[in-house]
Design goal:
heterodimer, A: mainly alpha, ABC transporter involved in vitamin B12 uptake, BtuC, 0% strand, B: 284 residues, alpha/beta, six-stranded mixed β-sheet, four-stranded antiparallel β-sheet, 10 helices, 26% strand, globular, disordered C terminus
């Protein structure tokens, strides 16, 4: 008899992937320009600051950074899966509907105006990137629904137009900014995992986890939605409600990821495709596994970014693009027979 | 036989003053097989979209199992009506069993995992349509006829009283056309399904269906509608032998046909301007 995905099978696969993520996180936390002795780490923090440097580097610097990379990778991969499903477009990524340009605009405004506001421990750049991303997504959604009934096409067109317009504004602001302001903006645009304080990490982790669980709750409906609206309605799916919920949650977790790390490219496009090629397109499985693999991928990429030109660091966006491209091509060559849109 | 679909004075227009359906009334008995025929643009797909709740009636009413269609939630309606649309290929590469299991969506809880009842329904539908053999294959790797069988399997797994189909045999060769209609007839006779199928093949419709709804595409003139409605009906409903005649087909479809008989059943062959011996063809 034919097998369908069961909760038990999914739980086993997710646990296996979590084990892989845990191994990747542990290994990546232990490697770096400063060698760490596990024996010293297990000895504890010591009585005064500086007494056990290995412990402080691992617990105070590397672990938060590894957790941050895992969170950002998970959010971007998850968002990529969802946007590809609701837009029924394999080229969709988390930034397709204007989040990148909105966040970028927010950042350059924060940089040029020299604002020093912060919120929940987040830097002004993070706060402005988050606000810019969400405001732009709302604008794209509003324009997409205002302009036409063919919602998916209207949304995509609205996203492209607003992206182009905001990119032009960013170019204009960059051209009148000082060189140090331009440098901070460009460095941010390239995507960068840097240490955050614990409260930012905890709040972001809570939001991304909640968003991912919410998206998992609609993941079976995403399967149906990817067949088209008529088919989905015929199967009793409230398409408008699922689209709004999925779109809002995907935008929310992407905005958090962008505010934490800038524009890390490729993860949201490559990871969903890679996982889909190996595990199939069922979103109940694709979504959680993409989130975990996306996290592991970005942790590994960030480790490379801080090791390749050690003690200096590369922006992680450079590594994701350089490593992600060939990795994806290998997968593509191996599994191309499974990819419907290449035929 | 009690009616499971009751359509009364149904009208619909996509643009003002241009009604595509006008005052259409008919009943479909529980367990009946109705075929909807008519020329392009006569409103067949519009009617199907109204019957499955995708469009709302602008005038008149549609009752499904004695309750107005508007009173059903999307989920409850999907437990009553399964729709098979013209063949399509999903963007993502789902396997056959994944596509068929989607039929259980109206019965699933929040996280959407199938239980034993769902798995039994899926397996029965795969076996009834002879698609279990390629259940793990990608839908895209199948031929058009096999894909259409998978979509019918999905409709069966949805476990509804009513099945609506939009041209289920378009693009299929003769063998597969007959195969699909055999499947539908078996679903009607063995599982008691009520079937409404849009078709362009009047011969298959005549052979398999209990009733024909012929949408003529004509609208009664605005002046003197009482008389006009009789002389220019926008639809005809009845048994195939009463609806399909060479004169009626020529009037509705605008094409001459050769009519013959196999046993008691009429069949029709359309005759174009360049058809061989069309000059000598006569209506028998």
């Amino acid at each position: 008899m034919a097998q369908v995905l069961t909760a038990r099978n999914l739980a086993i696969r997710v646990l296996l992937c979590l084990a892989v993520l845990a191994v990747v996180m542990c290994v990546c936390a232990l490697v770096g320009s400063q060698k760490i002795s596990l024996k010293k780490v297990f000895a504890g923090p010591g009585r005064s600051p500086g007494e056990n440097i290995d412990y402080e580097i691992l617990v105070g610097i590397r672990l938060p950074r590894v957790v941050l990379a895992a969170l950002v990778g998970a959010a971007l991969a998850c968002s990529g899966v969802v946007l590809q499903a609701i837009l029924r477009n394999p080229l969709a990524d988390p930034y397709i509907l204007g989040i990148s340009s909105g966040a970028g605009l927010g950042v350059i405004i924060a940089v040029i105006s020299g604002i020093t506001w912060s919120f929940c421990g987040g830097s002004p750049l993070s706060v402005f990137a988050f606000a810019g991303a969400l405001a732009t997504v709302w604008l794209v959604w509003f324009v997409g629904h205002f302009t036409g009934k063919a919602q998916v096409t209207s949304l995509l067109l609205a996203g492209v137009v607003i992206n182009a317009f905001f990119s032009a504004v960013i170019m204009f602001l960059t051209s009148i900014a000082r060189s140090d302001q331009v440098y901070s903006t460009i460095f941010w645009l390239m995507g960068n995992i840097t240490e955050k304080n614990l409260s930012v990490l905890v709040v972001s982790a809570g939001c991304i986890l909640a968003g991912t669980i919410g998206l998992f709750g609609v993941s079976q409906r995403l399967n149906i939605l990817s067949l088209g609206e008529q088919e989905a309605k015929g199967l009793g799916v409230d398409t408008a409600k699922i689209q709004i919920v999925a779109f809002a949650l995907a935008a929310f977790i992407t905005a958090i990821a962008v505010s934490l790390s800038g524009l890390v490219g490729f993860v949201g496009l490559v990871v969903p495709h890679g996982v889909r090629l190996v595990a199939g397109p069922d979103h109940r499985q694709l979504l959680p596994i993409s989130a975990i693999i996306g996290g592991a991928f970005l942790v590994a990429a960030d480790t490379l970014a801080r090791m390749i030109v050690s003690p200096a660091q590369l922006p992680v966006g450079v590594i994701t693009a350089i490593a992600g491209g060939p990795f994806f091509l290998v997968l593509l060559a191996r599994y191309s027979r499974k990819i419907s849109w290449l035929k | 036989m009690s009616s499971i679909i009751e359509v009364k004075d149904l009208s619909f227009a996509y643009a003002p003053h241009s009604r595509i359906l006008e005052d259409v009334s008919f009943d479909v008995g529980a367990g009946a097989f109705l075929s909807v025929a008519g020329p392009n643009g006569a409103g067949k797909t519009t009617l199907l979209n109204l019957l499955c709740g995708l469009l709302g009636p602008q005038a008149g009413s549609i009752m499904i199992d004695t309750a107005p269609i508007q009173s059903y939630s999307a989920r409850r309606l999907a437990q009553k009506i399964a729709v098979v649309r013209q063949e399509f290929v999903p963007v993502f590469d789902f396997t056959v069993v994944e596509v068929v299991s989607m039929a259980r969506t109206p019965y699933l809880g929040t996280f959407g995992f199938d239980g034993k009842i769902d798995r039994d329904a899926i397996n029965q539908a795969l076996e009834a349509t002879d698609t279990a053999q390629f259940a793990r294959r990608s839908l895209r790797s199948l031929s058009g006829g096999e894909r259409q069988r998978v979509f019918i399997a999905r409709a069966l797994a949805q476990n509804t009283a009513i099945m609506l189909l939009d041209e289920p045999t378009s693009f299929l060769d003769l063998k597969h056309q007959v195969g699909i209609y055999d499947l539908l007839k078996a679903a009607q006779l063995e599982k008691g399904k009520t079937i409404v199928a849009i078709t362009h093949d009047i011969n298959l419709a005549a052979q398999y269906c209990d009733q024909i709804l012929l949408l003529t595409g004509r609208k009664p003139p605005m002046q003197g509608r009482e008389n006009g409605a009789q002389n220019h009906p926008s639809y005809l409903i009845g048994k195939a032998k009463d609806i399909f005649s060479p004169e009626q087909i020529e009037k509705v479809f605008g094409v001459r046909v050769f009519a013959g008989k196999v046993g008691k059943e009429n069949f029709f062959i359309p005759l174009g301007r360049f058809a061989k011996d069309s000059g000598q063809a006569s209506i028998s």
